Amino acid sequence: MLIVNDLSVFYGKIKVVHNINFTIEEGSCVALLGPNGAGKTSTISSILGTVNSTGTVNFCNQDISKIQTEDRIKLGISIAPEGRRVFSNLSVFENLYLGSAIRKDRAIADNEIENWFNIFPILKERKDQSAGTLSGGEQQMLTIARALMGNPKILLLDEPSLGLAPMITKQVFELIETLKTKGITILLVEQNATEALKLADYSYILNSGNIVAHGNRSEILKKGDLMSSLTGVEN
Amino acid sequence: MIDYVVQQSLNALSFGAEYALIALGLAIVFSIMGLVNFAHGEVIAIGGYCMMVMAAIAFRNPIVIIIGAIFASVIMAVFLERIAFRPVRYADATTGLLTAFGVSLILQNLFLLLVSPRPIAVTSMYFLDWPIKLGSIRISSLQIFETVATLLAILFLVLFLKRSFLGIAMRAASLDFEMVRLMGIRANRVIATAFAISGLLAGIAAIFIIARRGAVDPTLGFNPVLKAFVACVVGGFGSLTGAVLGGFLLGALEVGMLVILPQSYGGMKDAFVFAVIAIILVWRPEGILSPQKEKGDKI
C-alpha cells in the first residue's frame, strides 16, 4: 500500500534522513522505532509532504512525492500528530467535524461523530467544551478520532503515548489494537518500543536518519544490545 | 447634559464602527496568515474609485453603487492575495509586511497617475446625509447606517465563523495552519476566503468613508487603516473581538478627547489619544484581548 523508496529528508542543507526504504502492506501495522532525533517524525512529515525530501513515496500504486499535502490527505492518508495538535480554540465537536473535511457528504460526519462519542463517552460529555481544556489522554483520543473521521486508507500515528500516564498509555495502545483488528493500515511511530513491538506486524529501527534494523518482533528482540541501546527494550 | 452625553456617545459609536470595520478586515487576515496587510487601505480606495466611476457612467441608484463598491473591493482583495501575497506566504513576517507596504505604494501611485492626485467628488450617497432629529439630539443617517451595518457585519462574521465549515476551518487555521492542511482543507481556499471577507469589510468601509468625506483621493484608505492598525494593537492583534473592541475604544477616545480638551488644544487630540493608548499598552502589552497562548504543552 505504501512504498517508501530511497527517501532522504532535508532541513535546509542538513540531511536528517538518509536514503531509507520501507514498505507497508495493506491492513498491517508497521512501527518506526528509535530514539529522539532518529528521524521518525521527519519520515512521517515527508510522507505527508510537509518537509523537503528526495526519493519516492508510492501510495496505492501512485507516486505521491510531487503532489500537495492536501491532495495526499484526499488520497486517504491521515495523521494523528506528535503533541496531539488539537485545535484548542475549537470545541471537541468542531475538531471532529473538521476531521471530515475530505468527505464529499458532510452529512455523514454527524453520524460518524456520534459513533466516536459512543466509543469515547467522555468526549460526548465535553463536546461543547474547548479542546484545549481536555486532559492529555482525552486530547489523544480526540486526535485519533479526528484522524479517522475522514475514513482514511492509512493512519499515521506519531508518538501517541508521549507524555501520557501509564494507565492512559495502556488505553491508547488498546485503542490502536482495536483499530488494527478492524483492518486499518497503521504506521506507528513510537519511542515506547516495548508496547509498539507487541502491536506491530513489522518494525523498522531508525537511528541518526538510517534504518539500522528491521523485522518482526522476535527478529528485532534478537538484536539484543543494539535494541536495548536504541529503544530501551531488554531482550 | 444627558442629551449632550447621548449625542457624543452616538458620535463615538459611529466613528468606532468605522474603525472596527477596517480593523476586522486587518485582523481576519492577520489571524490566519500573520500578515499585517497595509494594502487594505488601497482595497478601500478601489471601492471608492469604483463608486466614482459608477456614478460617472450614470448609475444613479445608490444600491447599485454600493453593490459595485463592495464587489470591487472583494475582487481587489482576492486579486492582491493571488498575485502579491501568495508568493510570499511561507516567507517570514517581515517579507509579508514589506510586500504589503510595496503593494500599497504601487497602488497609491497608480491612482495618482491614472486617475488624479486631487480629490474627486462622489456625491451619490445622498441617503447617508439626511439629518435626523430626536428631541434635542441631532444625528445624521450616516451614523445610524454605519453603526447598524457594522453590527450586522460583525453578526454575519460571527455566524460564518461559528456555523460554516469554512468558518470553523478559518478559526482552526488561526491557531495551527499546517494542521488544517493536514485535515485535507486547501490552504488557498481558506486564505482566499479570509481576503474576500476583508475585501467585503473594506468595501462597506469605503461607502461610509466616502459618505463622510464626499470625495475620493489616492490616500483615501491609508490613514483609516493606520488608525485601524492601532485599534488592532490595542484590542489584541489576531483577536477578532479585540479588533472590534479596539475600534470602538479608539472611536470613543477620539470623540472623548474632542469633548474634554479645551478648544485651543483640539489640534493635539491625536497626541492625547495615543498617550492613553500607550498607557493601555503598558498595562496590557499584547493588547486588551490578545489571543490566548498555550502556557505549557499539554502532553
Can you describe this structure in just a few lines?
The complex is a heterodimer of chains A (235) and B (299). Chain A is of the alpha/beta class and 235 residues long.
Mean pLDDT of chain A: 90
Share in β-strands of chain A: 25-35%
Measured by residues with Cβ under 8 Å of the partner chain's Cβ, the largest interface is: A-B, 31 and 24 residues
Low-confidence stretches of chain B: 294-299
Count up the helices of chain B.
11
What gross morphology of chain A would you assign? globular
Number of strands of chain A: 10
How many discrete domains of chain B? 1
Explain what you see.
The complex is a heterodimer of chains A (235) and B (299). In chain A, strand 4 and strand 5 form a beta hairpin. Chain A has a single domain, classed as Rossmann fold, CATH 3.40.50. In chain A, the strands form two sheets. Chain A has a six-stranded mixed beta sheet, with helices on both faces. Chain A has a four-stranded antiparallel beta sheet with strand order 2-1-4-5, with helices on one face. Chain A is 38% helix and 27% strand. Chain A is an alpha/beta fold. The longest helix of chain A has 16 residues. In chain A, helix 3 runs parallel beside helix 6. Chain A starts with a strand and ends with a helix. Chain B is built from eleven helices and four strands; from the N terminus they run H-H-H-H-E-E-E-H-H-H-H-E-H-H-H. In chain B, strands 1-4 form a two-stranded antiparallel ribbon. Chain B has a two-stranded antiparallel sheet with strand order 2-3. In chain B, strand 2 and strand 3 form a beta hairpin. The longest helix of chain B has 32 residues. The C terminus of chain B is likely disordered. Chains A and B meet through helix 2, helix 3 and helix 6 of A and helix 6 and helix 7 of B.
State the main characteristics.
heterodimer; A: 235 residues; alpha/beta; six-stranded mixed beta sheet; 10 strands; 38% helix; B: 299 residues; mainly alpha; two-stranded antiparallel ribbon; disordered C terminus
